[in-house]
Write a structure and sequence with these properties.
Length: about 100
Amino acid sequence: MSDQSVKSRRPYFIWDYDLTEGDVRRILRGDNEVEKAWLITRILEYAKWDDIWRYLTVDDVRENFERLRFRWPRDRELWAYALERWSRRRSGDLAEHE
């Protein structure tokens, strides 16, 4: 598949919007914080685990976390917990066996 056809394809996690792969990448790189927060939330809620990390980094999630509006409070709690754990691991506060 050519790069152009991939860029023009609609990602499965935005089935109800007319956005292409290229649009998704543009929004994630862009300066519109509202659009970016909406799209990051959408990816975290609906993309498969491996696909999340094709689009985002942990820092993307961390830097935008306060603006994310999850549909379910439990999703916010789980991502907050994951970010806290990853931050502690990065800073060396977690034991190796955890």
